[in-house]
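Researcher: I'd like a structural prediction for the single chain below. Treat it as a standalone chain; there are no partners to consider.
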Amino acid sequence: MKRINLTKAEKQLEDEMVAGKWVPVSKAENDAIATALKARKKDAVLNIRVNSQDLSQLKKKAKKLGVKYQTYISEVLHQVAQ
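Model: Treating it as a single chain, here is the predicted structure.
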């Protein structure tokens, strides 16, 4: 039988599955997850001018949360849009 070489990340996933850390979900749960992921898909480009002090504050908040500032701004926009 041919041996498949896994990356470290793939090996970690395999080990977690074998250890039972992953659980199966129903089709409805899977569909809900897929819908949520599609809603988060970044499929448009936006170029805007902002106040440099505002941008600096956004960057500080993003760093404090441990995320990239563009991701943080995108999430803020998403929350406001909802």
